[in-house]
Amino acid sequence: MRPQVLIIGCGFGGLEAARALRTAEVDVTVIDKTNHHLFQPLLYQVATAGLSAPSIAAPIRHLFRRQRNVTTLMGEVVALDAAAQTVALKDGATLRWDHLIVAAGATHSYFGRDDWAPHAPGLKTLDDAFEIRRRVLLAFEMAEREDDPVKRAALLQFVVVGGGPTGVELAGTFAEIARHTLPGEFRRIDPRQARVLLVEGSPRVLQAMPESLSERAREQLAALGVEVKLGARVTNIDAEGLDITTAAGPERLQSRCVVWAAGVAASPLGRALADATGCTLDRAGRVVVEPDLSLQGHPNIQVVGDLAAAQSHAPGKESRPVPGVSPGAKQMGRWAATNIKRRLSGQATLPFRYADYGNLATIGRNSAVVDLGTPAGQLRFSGYPAWLFWLFAHVYFLIGYRNRFVVLLDWAWAYWTYDRGARVVTQKR
């Protein structure tokens, strides 16, 4: 029998790992809780009705239809046995492996206040996106029927918690929907009167960006009509709104639509790995890995993507943490596959080296910030040129020519008409 490689998760890391093993003399099994690979950087576009779900997702089986050494399974891994080299699935089945790559990703973190989750959904999956879209659009529908001006104001107040890329993108797009997409469609309310707030606990938005670009992003958000509250710590969230504390004191924000974009925690599979192998977890629940992405004492188990607390080990440079972004997950996936091939051929594995190409985030129509690493140094720009760069970069990295074409077409139509064609929601049963 050929060596069996099991990959848990088909996000960016798992997908790249499986593709990198295309020519290897191994049999690969890819298992995921869903049947699709999701292009998460554009998930907020589904949540804000800019794109339909199939535009940013692709069936995993379809992606590997021509890679004959890959078997695709839909299932959820709940436990691992490092000694027996097996994993247990939620339905009771077990899978054997010779080499294991864990790319299970991350989930939301409410910093110990999981009771906030029903009132402030996060954005990690298509189900999350559908729920946020439903809440946003139904808020306008309920406001149209509400006679009480206080209750109507609460319905038309949208709050995004967290000033990272996802929070900035959501807040900017909510403002665009209220000011450009919906006006003229209601008879009793003016959607332009909706209030969009971005609540961030630190002194600036986009902490990973240089301070100059963070300030530029804040200015662009303000130009779109977003109210940015910096240094604001959330103390409670309930069905009627949230409580925050700022330098000026406590404040109550009445809102029927709160979105959480403030915290990320590793997949629960990290704890299962720790129980099975004794590996160390960091404060976010990520697995601390060796320089070659393997686990100490378990060279045939590698962890990649958001689940890995990994370091970049470039020759002659100080080790530095790998950020939890899609390029990092992709590079780790390919590196893990390369190390498996080296191990099978009797060669020593290589320490992971991350190539940082920079950061970019869009704020809204014609507004974005870009921070790129180039051989000549950092290239930083914002505004319309940055927005064009963001647009074409995301289209380029989308999976499949069909998705690229559909997304470009939808964006072109939305740019000229302000229309968002995915504004279809259903009531929960």
Sequence-ordered SSE layout with sheet pairings:
Layout: E1 4-8, H1 12-20, E2 27-32, E3 36-38, H2 43-47, E4 57-59, H3 60-63, E5 70-74, E6 77-81, E7 86-89, E8 94-96, E9 99-102, E10 106-108, H4 126-145, H5 149-155, E11 157-161, H6 165-181, E12 195-200, H7 211-224, E13 226-230, E14 233-238, E15 241-246, E16 249-254, E17 257-260, E18 264-266, H8 269-277, E19 287-288, E20 294-295, E21 298-303, E22 308-309, E23 311-312, E24 320-321, H9 326-344, E25 358-364, E26 367-374, E27 377-382, H10 384-397, H11 401-417
Parallel strand pairs: 1-2, 1-9, 2-5, 9-21, 11-12, 11-17, 12-13, 19-22
Antiparallel strand pairs: 3-4, 6-7, 7-8, 10-18, 14-15, 15-16, 20-21, 23-24, 25-26, 26-27
Q: How is this structure best described in words?
A:
With 429 residues, the chain is an alpha/beta fold. The chain has two domains: 4-33 and 75-108 and 265-344, FAD/NAD(P)-binding domain, CATH 3.50.50; 115-262 and 366-417, FAD/NAD(P)-binding domain (3-Layer(bba) Sandwich), CATH 3.50.50. The protein is built from eleven helices and 27 strands. It has a six-stranded mixed β-sheet with strand order 5-2-1-9-21-20, with helices on one face. It has a four-stranded parallel β-sheet with strand order 13-12-11-17. Strand 1 (4-8), helix 1 and strand 2 form a beta-alpha-beta unit. Helix 4 (126-145) packs antiparallel against helix 5. The longest helix is centred in the first third of the chain and has 20 residues, at 126-145. The mean pLDDT is 93.
